[in-house]
Amino acid sequence: MAAIEMRDVSPGGHVLSGRTIDGLPARASLREILTARVEAEVAAYNARPGQVYHGLVQPEDAIRYSDGFRMREPRPLDAGHLLRAVEEAVAAGVVVFRIGEVTTDDLDHEVDVDANDLVTTVMRRPIVARAG
């Protein structure tokens, strides 16, 4: 199994957050990588819900701070709900991905995880999971 780092950046290159995703096959689609990431972030938070969620997607009732998303009320999160927010953000052109010299918004784009150690998520604005 392989690992890859995801680094989230603003259009100007300011690093916003990131995470290393372990346990990936040698080749994985961006969708598979994102699913593994969001599921890991949600599982880590749900194991000990607290005031701060560290993740790619801002839960609908949270406020962005420099150390993550401050939850108004600690509660379990739903990975599927957050993943849908990512898919909607990609479809709306809010997010693109850079892998080496390639820039794509295709979630089915296959990444050679063994040959690449970084996926950069360029976020034109935060991904927010809306209620409902």
Characterization of this structure:
The protein is α+β, with helices and mostly antiparallel strands. It has a domain at 2-44 and 79-123: Ubiquitin-like (UB roll) (Roll). It is 23% helix and 36% strand. The protein has two helices and ten strands. It has helices at 30-47, 79-91, and strands spanning 2-9, 15-24, 27-29, 52-53, 62-65, 68-71, 95-99, 102-104, 110-112, 118-123. The strands form three sheets. It has a five-stranded mixed β-sheet, covered by helices on one side. It has a three-stranded antiparallel β-sheet with strand order 4-6-5. Strands 3-9 form a two-stranded antiparallel sheet. A hairpin with a 5-residue loop joins β1 and β2 (15-24).
Key descriptive features of the protein:
132 residues, alpha+beta, Ubiquitin-like (UB roll), 5-stranded mixed beta sheet, 3-stranded antiparallel beta sheet, 2 helices, 23% helix, globular
List the helices and strands and how they pair.
Layout lengths: L1 E8 L5 E10 L2 E3 H18 L4 E2 L8 E4 L2 E4 L7 H13 L3 E5 L2 E3 L5 E3 L5 E6 L9
Helix pairs in contact: 1-2
Helix content: 10-25%
Return Rg in Å: 14 Å
What CATH calls the topology of the domain at 2-44 and 79-123 is Ubiquitin-like (UB roll)
| Quaternary structure annotation | single chain
Task: Compute the number of helices.
Answer: 2
| Strand coverage percent | 35-45%
* SSE series: EEEHEEEHEEEE
Q: Whole-number average pLDDT? A: 95
Distance between the termini: 36 Å
Strand order of the largest sheet: 2-1-10-7-8
CATH level 1 class label of the domain at 2-44 and 79-123: Alpha Beta
**Which blocks of ≥5 consecutive residues have pLDDT under 50?**
none
Number of strands: 10
SS class: alpha+beta
Tell me the CATH architecture of the domain at 2-44 and 79-123. Answer: Roll
Q: Mind describing the biggest β-sheet?
A: 5 strands, mixed
What is the approximate shape?
globular
